[in-house]
Amino acid sequence: MTVFSLRRLAALTVKEVVQIGRDPSTLLIAFVLPLILMVLFGYGVSLDTARTRVGLALEDDSAAAVGLAESYQNSRWFDVTMAHAVAPLRRELVAGRIRAVIVIPADFGGGRARGRTPPVEVITDGSEPNTASFVAAYAEGVRAAWAGERRPRVRIEPRFWFNPELKSRFFLVPGAMAIVMTMIGTLLTALVVAREWERGTTEALFATPITMLEFLISKLAPYFVLGLISMSLCAIFAVTVFGLPFRGSPLTLLAIASAFLVPALGQGLFISAATRNQFVASQIALLSAFLPALLLSGFLFEISSMPAPIQWLTYAIPARYLIPPLSTVFLAGDLWDLILPDIFAMLGFGVLFFALAFRFTRKRLD
Q1: pLDDT 10s digits, 129-168
Q2: H or E segment at 57?
Q3: What does the alpha-carbon distance between residue 320 and residue 38 come to, in Å, rounded to a whole number?
Q4: Distance from C-alpha of 121 to C-alpha of 128, rounded to nearest angstrom
Q5: Contact 170, 323 (CB under 8 A)
Q6: What Rg value do the Cα atoms of the chain yield, rounded?
Q7: Pick from 276, 268, 283: which is nearest to 201 by CA?
Q8: Cβ–Cβ < 8 Å for 267, 293
Q9: Is 176 in a helix, a strand, or coil?
Q10: Predicted confidence (pLDDT) at residue 320 exceeds the cutoff of 60
Q11: Which domains does the chain have, with CATH numbers?
Q12: What gap in Å lies between CA 151 and CA 148, rounded to an integer?
């Protein structure tokens, strides 16, 4: 029975490092692709509705109505088009030139004088539900702030923790880093190892006295280091280019990245061992890792808003457990009681994928 040898492991690892240095595509995927994806997600994806074009129908000329209209005009959230009736603004809404119509009704000032709160109507374009929801919420926020200023005993002062400016980029950039790590860990490993299966070099290696453990460690250790370097580059890019706050410690960030690389690399190794073909491995990696991470991890769509069966499905997506600790370490700090459960979940997925890769590879060699 062949025993584990550190000397063979070191030789195999050096061989893998030399091969990575000779392969420009590996370096491009590890270092150039992450920065491209960060730029695309950071600048191309935004959930902010700052300066949304809206129409304001001022049907009352009382001081109260005019004051509320001025609050909407001075809001940093809206670019207001004024009118005295709904009809012309409705045509603008149908044409797509504005996203909502805010109606201050007639007798607004009279209602205020009688001690009741007159309703303010908000007509939104339901073809874009996210924008419609945001506009309705911000319109109500402006009205509530204006009403609070008129009550001397009550002062409304909203406070937002962790993201005071409500920038969606502060949430999307950590999510983009999770997508990048998924691409690097799973796709890179699946392609590189499958390439060796195609060339026959893997069978040649197994003709030597190496053990399966030595093979797995030598294959994954260099890509594990590449993944950590890539995560560090993405973090530096996020802080310096996007202005993302970093309230945690670098060691915590590396611990989170290391925990996620375990299932990502294990999944890539399992895919390569099962397919032994670069094209098939790349397609399976995209379908089983990239798309679920993009759609079901909470990066773009809140998991709580998904149907119940889909919510249960998200528990099988490793990237689901990466985005919350990344957001925590960037926006809140080293809150280990929130981070550790996700780290343990990612490590659990890693053990599962490595067990599958080990058993499947050994079975195919028998």
Answers
A1: 777 888 888 888 888 877 776 655 556 666 777 766 667 7
A2: strand 52-58
A3: 18
A4: 18
A5: no
A6: 27
A7: 276
A8: no
A9: helix
A10: yes
A11: 6-45+167-365 (no CATH), 52-149 (3.40.1710.10)
A12: 5
